[in-house]
Design goal:
Pfam family, one: ketoacyl-synt
Largest sheet: 12 strands, mixed
Helix content: 25-40%
Number of domains: 1
CATH class: Alpha Beta
Family: Belongs to the thiolase-like superfamily. Beta-ketoacyl-ACP synthases family.
CATH architecture: 3-Layer(aba) Sandwich
Organism: Streptomyces tagetis
Number of helices: 12
Structural class: alpha/beta
Distance between the termini: 16 Å
GO molecular function: 3-oxoacyl-[acyl-carrier-protein] synthase activity
Number of strands: 14
Shape: globular
Keywords: Acyltransferase, Transferase
Order of helices and strands: EEHEEHHEHHHEHEHEHEHEHEHEEE
CATH superfamily: Thiolase/Chalcone synthase
Strand content: 15-25%
């Protein structure tokens, strides 16, 4: 099982648009969480979000695309363009069917769909955009990226809630092994509109606190939920030998992947996360002691934090590996969190520093987790990224420095 190379990264998050801005903010512990302003949240129990502000995706796109795209798709198009530029990869210079696209998504273009439903009920069907037929769909980001860049290789979309972004990387890896030259993959996710907000609240996992510094506290004694956000990362992945043959800069290597479902509730069996971790390490050919840092899923609810801590201690021993959750500065981004953590881990390996988990001041000793709450400079060669999704999804990706 050969590793694949990450050669391009396009990053968008509430605390930074672009990999450089995001990494600078993350290392300094600067959070992007705040009161939601996309709509008036005063009548909702949760009012905080990791919202992109000061960045206008529409300014980077041709006007003809604006009428047919949701904000989430616009962000995805920008991230894909940045990833291709970062990889110094010109699709026009490669054979027509050589580049594929596999993205992940949790909701599709909910904001676009809500607007068109409002038009339907207030004005009638003649006022509903024809673009509604695809703008809301889970696969719309894959399609629009493919069309914009003339990418006619294999395409797909993965829907597995928060684990979907890592699963998309695994799907891209399979395409590379079948001969695809390069794949744009990952996820930019999150939909901040009343329709999607109502759906998120129904899951019962969002914090209702008002202070952004006190709302998303994974592995903390005060944990009561998470803050949702928008953003993520799209990555260009290539066969390692092919990437190096063209002189590409390699950010890092994806060496292993594991996935497992949780058992049915009430079965008494352990959740699937530990199995996903074991699979990723086995495929990478690593021992647990080879892992230098874990980027946690960090659900921020007591039960899910306890489950993740149990999986970590089972795999690595109590306080056996440094664990971090920089998503405390961005919020949980649906399928976008996993790929953003992958990009963050690759930058951590590059600069030999673990970014912090912010705001956690009462980490529970009984969890046995060595939680990194301030930047920690140690030798870093290998990282493990974890992601879990509503409904029992668990995924893990093993990364190494190039």
């Amino acid at each position: 099982m050969t590793a694949i190379a990450v050669t391009g990264m396009g990053v968008l998050a509430a605390n930074g648009a672009g990999a450089r801005a995001y990494w600078s903010a993350t290392l300094s512990g600067r959070s992007g969480l705040g009161r939601l302003t996309r709509f008036d949240p005063s009548s909702y129990p949760a009012r905080l979000a990791g919202q992109l502000s000061g960045f206008d995706a529409s300014a980077a796109l041709p006007s003809r695309l604006l009428a047919q795209t949701d904000e989430l798709t616009r962000l995805s198009l920008v991230a894909a363009e940045w990833a291709l530029a970062d990889a110094a990869l010109d699709p026009a210079a490669l054979p027509e069917y050589s580049i594929g696209v596999v993205t992940a998504n949790t909701a599709g273009g909910f904001e676009f769909g809500q607007r068109e439903l409002e038009n339907l009920w207030s004005k009638g069907r003649g006022h509903v955009s024809a673009y509604q037929s695809f703008a809301w769909f889970y696969a719309v980001n894959t399609g629009q990226i493919s069309i914009r860049h003339g990418l006619r290789g294999p395409g797909g979309v993965v829907v597995a809630d928060g684990a979907g972004g890592l699963d998309a990387l695994a799907a891209a890896r399979r395409l590379l092994r079948k001969g695809t030259r390069a794949v744009i993959t990952g996820a930019v996710d999150g939909s901040l509109c009343p329709w999607s907000w109502t759906a998120l609240l129904a899951q019962g996992r969002m914090s209702t606190r008002e202070d952004p510094d006190d709302a998303y506290l994974p592995f903390d004694a005060r944990a009561d939920g998470h803050v949702a956000g928008e953003g993520g990362a799209l990555l260009v992945v290539e066969d390692t030998e092919a990437a190096r043959a063209r002189g590409a800069r390699v950010h890092g290597l994806i060496e292993g992947y594991g996935t497992a479902f949780d058992p049915p509730p009430g079965s008494g069996r352990e959740p699937g996360l530990r199995r996903a971790v074991a699979q990723a390490l086995d495929e990478a050919g690593w021992q647990p002691s080879d892992v230098d840092v874990v980027f946690a899923d960090a659900a921020g609810t007591p039960r899910l934090d306890r489950e993740e801590a149990a999986a970590l201690t089972a795999a690595f021993g109590p306080r056996g590996v440094p664990v971090t959750a920089p998503k405390t500065m961005t919020g949980r981004l649906g399928a976008g969190s996993g790929p953003l953590d992958v990009a963050t881990a690759l930058m951590a390996l590059r600069d030999q520093v673990i970014p912090p988990t912010v705001n956690v001041s009462r980490a529970k000793d009984e969890y046995g987790v060595d939680l990194v709450i301030a930047p920690r400079r140690i030798p870093l060669h290998r990282a493990l990224v974890l992601a879990r999704g509503q409904g029992g999804f668990n995924s893990a990706v093993a990364l190494s420095a190039p």
